[in-house]
Amino acid sequence: MHPTGTLIWYYYICPREVWLMSRHLTPWQENPFIEIGRLISKESYQRDRKEIRLENIVIDLLKTEGENVVIGEVKKSSRFEKSARMQLAFYLWKLNHLGIEATGKLLFPREKKKITVMLTKEIEDELEEAQQKIISIVQMETPPPARRIKFCSKCGYQEFCWS
Amino acid sequence: MKRSIYIFSDGELKRKDKTLCFETKEGKKYIPVENTHEILIFGEVTINKRLLEFLTESEIILHFFNYYGYYVGSFYPREHLNSGYMILKQAEHYLDHKKRLNLAENFVSGAIENIKRVLIYYANRGKPLNETIDKINSIALSIKDCESTEELMAVEGNIRDEYYQAFDIILDSEHFVFEARTKRPPKNRLNALISFANSLVYTTVLSEIYHTHLDPRIGYLHTTNFRRFTLNLDVAEIFKPIIADRVIFNLVNKSIIKPNHFEKKLDGIVLNDKGKQLLIQHMDERLRSTIQHKRIGRHVSYRQLIRLELYKIQKHLIGEEEYRPFQSGW
Q: pTM of the entire structure?
């Protein structure tokens, strides 16, 4: 089992989402926040290259700035900054293994905000650990129990979890 | 909240760029797809493949009804939520006799609980229904002894007989008497109302199933014959008393629906267009009305409640939480 960027993203928000996503039990698609997110990633940065697929990762956009390769991840808001950082770091780490040195930029078009993400030894170790944990979550027979956290109120799984 | 669209006129439904357009002799009407949950067609409507492709892309179900208001079938677009895992779980609970029976029992007992709620509601308003409630309680005792879904269906049938007999006590209207349950065609006005309202509940549940990871072809109480939808019939049992029947009682007791909303057809009685529209309008209002949901912590509509019920079934199938059918609070 190879964790994907999406699972890394979910891991830092809620382990239950990791389990559900691993079974392709996708969240309620009409959740307004999911719809807004989808729209933002569709409408923003239309001039740059979009959706590059490499093995099991999907990179929102990729460009070269001089010698450097820059990959971008578009997000609705910086509310989940930790998740976003680790997802992008995971892509950098993956590219690294393919022999591509790159830097990452988190893009929050609505907030007109960009955050640069670089791969460091600490982040690599953290990613390693996260991947191990993700694998063990996915191997569970039943999902980790629902726990109410601050993200529940806007989550596409809230009706599923609390029904 | 997305809306259901009901089409009664004759005309052509087609794709117009990124929207839907319904064209009749009188003119064109545009239907924005982002706001459309499902489309129910009662009139003579022409459609083409381009439209079906667009509906699939927009994840909108089409339900067809014939001239007499009988459900004909649905255009159920290609599944957009695929989880092989959930399909396997659904099949596992179908193939394992004990697991299947457990779910089937839940659908029956859920239906009976909600039937009782309706009766208690009217008993509290002075209708002499205690005898019916007692009878239903005593028949319901045999649910736990049922060893097959056929037996369960029979118990449910017996309870429904008692329940329908009580319609005459609840309604007390010379124009709407129950006599006996008759379908295809219904032999009197009340039966016509019941049949039509029930088919609306079936299609509503089907539309909600489409937005979950469940496969509507695998039902538990109603025998799966692998080609038609049955899970929606199972889940509808729970909601028929509190959605369809309550709407019927309101319409008749408040004299909103009258004998002139019916016509004699095919040696039976059917609703005319005005009658169908009235019932649909009130069913739609009922589905959009909300109740406070404790665990979610806010108001949810009856339509959402149906979807939540499907989520509970999913959680049961996953092995996370034993399914307990929804019980109306009043």
A: 0.89
